[in-house]
Specification:
The chain is about 45% helix and about 5% strand. By secondary structure, it is of the alpha/beta class. The chain has 3 domains: about 15-110, Alpha-helical ferredoxin (Fumarate Reductase Iron-sulfur Protein, Chain B, domain 2, Orthogonal Bundle), CATH 1.10.1060.10; about 175-300, no CATH class; about 310-425, Rossmann fold, CATH 3.40.50. The strands form 3 sheets. Strands 4-3-5-6-10 form a 5-stranded mixed β-sheet. It has a 3-stranded parallel β-sheet with strand order 7-8-9, with helices on both faces. Helix 20 (about 370-385) crosses helix 21.
């Protein structure tokens, strides 16, 4: 069998502890201490060194030094790359903060892996290439979903649509229509803030989008409905398209801001982490990195779900899941934990309630991932510790968890999210 050398893009950079560095520099900085292993859900399942963060880093080091060829190991390499949940828990545990998830993302691209089903990949690709067509398909699909037709046709549907049926609530809605119904002007001439709603807020739970918008009502935000972020392309597409879409975001923000930078609000923890790391995307693009740094300083996360303010109204025991993709939730998770402690006190389960992260973004749809099994393990841990409610920073994580809880007829609920608003006035 012919050997094929694996080539990593030379311009690929990752966030280091003190500075941005290349994949080779990052992989070489691993001291092999293995402190990351017990935080990795994949290693805890497989118990194989190749599937541990340390094993992944040694693999990337060999590739970056040109010492590894495929030589019939394509399937093993694909399994290692696809099995990573991109949850960044290993980075949190690492003293050097080595971004293993970014390495696995680079490996997927080097191997030419497309972990999403083809139809779903095409649909999400339209988000950036043809936003109006994407909006038409999604709204039409959700309209049919609210009828009985998809359930009658379920045996004929592809697996990813069956999974979507399983996790999505029947009462989906449209954020555009909600704003129109309330006769709210979401495109004022002189806004003092910009709101970038997630797909979840736009199409699944418009009340979450309304709550995020109302947190900044005094600033008369403009809502950016059809502007792609670049996150999908960053995870599953090309670097070129990622930069093209990210540039559109920067240019839009600059056009609205003028001389006075405006807060850029999103209700997605995945998008929040991605926007904050725009400077990394443009680290090798002359003239853009400084613009990206200025933009990132004004990015905010804001979201709200029903949250009991008075301690006597708090239902039983609570837990917090801070699952995200590529970037640790960091200060946002700490803010959520403090708010929950204020309400639940000793009834907040401070330790990890589960060994495994919940799938955030579209990770529950990826091939080769055991995300469904990990969600099932989470529900077992919740039952064992008698937890009544889980607050999720990721809306998709809450959907995935609730779907399994419903099937198991559990009384435990997952909610997105406790009320969180980053303090813009500080920046």
């Amino acid at each position: 069998m012919a050997k094929r050398r694996i080539t990593l893009a030379s311009q690929t950079l990752v966030p280091g502890l003190q500075h941005v560095c290349t994949l080779k520099e990052s992989a070489a900085s691993c001291t092999r201490c293995n402190a990351c292993a017990q935080s990795c859900p994949v290693y805890l399942q497989y118990r194989q060194e190749s599937f541990s963060p340390r094993g992944r880093m040694q693999l990337m080091r060999l590739i970056s030094e040109g010492k590894l060829t495929t030589a019939g190991s394509d399937k093993l390499l694909a399994d290692i790359a696809n099995s990573c949940m991109l949850c960044a828990r290993c980075t949190n545990a690492c003293a050097g903060k080595i971004p293993v998830a970014h390495h696995m993302l680079a490996l997927r691209k080097a191997l030419g892996i497309k972990p999403l089903p083809a139809q779903l990949y095409f649909l999400l690709y339209l988000r950036g290439a043809a936003p109006k067509l994407f909006d038409f398909f999604v709204r039409g699909g959700l309209f049919l979903y609210r009828t009985k037709l998809p359930w009658l046709l379920r045996p004929l549907l592809p697996d990813w649509l069956k999974h979507a049926q399983t996790i999505l609530p029947r009462g989906t809605g449209s954020l555009r229509r909600l704003f129109a119904k309330k006769q709210m002007d979401v495109t004022p001439n002189k806004p003092k803030a910009l709101y970038f709603p997630s797909l979840y807020a736009q199409y699944i739970d418009p009340q979450a989008g309304l709550a995020a918008y109302q947190a900044f009502t005094a600033k008369k935000p403009t809502v950016l409905f059809r502007l792609p972020s670049g996150l999908f392309e960053h995870l599953y597409g090309s670097r070129t398209r990622t930069l093209q879409q990210a540039k559109k975001v920067l240019q839009t923000w600059e056009q609205y801001s003028g001389k006075y930078p405006l807060p850029f609000i999103t209700d997605s923890i995945e998008l929040y982490g991605f926007f904050k790391n725009y400077p990394l995307l443009f680290a090798t693009v002359p003239g853009w990195q400084q613009r990206a740094e200025k933009f990132a300083a004004h990015v905010q996360f804001v979201a709200e779900a029903p949250f009991p303010i008075k301690k006597k109204n708090a239902p039983g025991r609570a837990a917090l899941d801070s699952s995200s993709v590529l970037y640790p939730a960091g200060p946002v998770a700490e803010r959520a934990r403090k708010l929950l402690l204020t309400t639940y006190g000793k009834n907040l389960v401070e330790c990890e309630y589960s060994r495994f992260p919940l799938p955030a973004a579209s990770m529950g749809f990826t091939r080769g991932s055991n995300a469904g099994g990990w969600v099932l393990t989470n529900t077992q841990d919740l039952a064992r510790q008698q937890i009544d409610i889980v607050y999720c920073l990721s809306a998709w994580a809450a959907l995935e968890l609730n779907a399994v809880l419903r099937r198991r007829k559990s009384k435990t609920q997952a909610r997105f999210v406790v009320y969180i608003r980053t303090d813009y006035e500080r920046t």
